[in-house]
Amino acid sequence: MTIVEVEGRILRLTNLDKPMWPELNLTKGELLHYFAQMASVVLPHWQDRPMTVVRYPHGVEGPFFYQKNCPSGSPEWIHTFSTGGTNYVLVNDESTLIWMVNQGVIEFHPAEFSAGRPERASYAVIDLDPTHPFGFEAAVEVALQCREILLELGLRGYPKTSGATGVHIYIPLEPQYTFDVTLALAKAVGVMLAKAAPGLVTLERLVKRRQGVYVDYLQNASSRTLVGVYSPRPTPSASVSTPVTWEELTRVHPDEFTVRTLPQRVNAVGDLFAPVLTDRQSLDHLASLLGRS
DNA sequence: GTATGTA
DNA sequence: TACATACAACGCTGC
DNA sequence: GCAGCG
Ligand SMILES: [Mn+2]
Ligand SMILES: [Mn+2]
User: Fold this and answer.
1) Other C-beta atoms lying within 10 Å of the C-beta of residue A259
2) Is A93 helix (H, G, I), strand (E, B) or coil?
3) Which of A26, A91, A95, A237 could form a disulfide with A9 if both were Cys (CB 3.0 to 4.6 A apart)?
4) Residue A82: beta bridge partners?
5) Which window residues (128-167, chain A) lie with Cβ within 7 Å of strand D?
């Protein structure tokens, strides 16, 4: 056991040599180091967002479980937010982040709203999920189409890899729109994509009938979460959900962005998702499109 | 990974 | 003391 | 009504 001090708080870190990705010999200690390096970039994106996490106490090859409620026995300085009978952790500082990673958390899924305004979405999201044998390249093709459609609608979107084979496009918004509005927007974009690229894009909800890149517009709901930006994934490569520019989207592969490579990249290119925090857009000019659906 | 319940 | 168990569910959709 | 979905 190792005692560290983070932001003046004493943390007991356990099993630092435990392999979280045994195949890569990537330990919990190294994962903690990743988050220590990334904290200043990650925390603004997760601030005040009720957090769902996925824990792998024995590494990615072992069993996992989702966690929404702040567990009993957590430090008293952990901030929480209660809604609908669930007491969520707010990952608002580095000490909370480090404490959670020591608990075996690998995936962080922040809510799409802020605790301060739980009825209003911070962004709409276009979640592109390719089915087998379609892959990341197909998702990218749809993402680029999506960029054009959004621009025609007068909107700017910001892409990131999901860390698996998909792409997430965030459309940051003025915090005044409810989730029925963001759902209507994503659905309208999905319909336009399906029209522009039939055979490649699908809105089929039944997995066994689905073929192509699924536009998962139903992710736009207050009860839904998406893997957060800069969150690791329990993949063989220890990939990370990573913001990319539209220009590089066509020449990257999600497995090149990992727990081991991301700190260097962020030092080089900065936080490409920073605009998601500042470029808050209006949907008022789309009232007729989003009116009723 | 840790708290809690039960034998 | 030892061992088992919990740790998320919500709301919509298509049949 | 209920299974399927993420
Ligand atoms: Mn996805
Ligand atoms: Mn999805």
Assistant:
1) 23
2) coil
3) A95
4) A87
5) 129
Q: Computed over its alpha carbons, how large is the radius of gyration of chain A?
A: 19
CATH number of the structural domain A1-111: 3.90.920.10
Is the pTM above the cut of 0.95?
yes
d(CA A3, C1' D1) / Å: 55
| Helices A28-46 & A262-269 angle (0-180, nearest 10) | 40
The CA distance from A193 to A215, in Å, is: 8
Decide whether A1-111 matches A119-293 in CATH topology. Answer: yes
A220: enclosing H helix or E strand? none
Nucleotide nearest to A57 (CA to C1'): B1
Tell me which ligand sits closest to the C-alpha of residue A139.
1
User: Closest by alpha carbon to A181, among A84, A278, A46, A282?
Assistant: A282
Instruction: Name the nearest CA neighbour of A102 among A22, A7, A34.
Output: A34
Given CATH 1.20.1730.10, say whether it is the number of domain A119-293.
no
* Domain spans in chain A, listed from the N-terminal domain onward: 1-111, 119-293
Give residue-wise pLDDT tens across range A178-229. 999 999 999 999 999 999 999 999 999 999 999 999 999 999 999 999 999 9
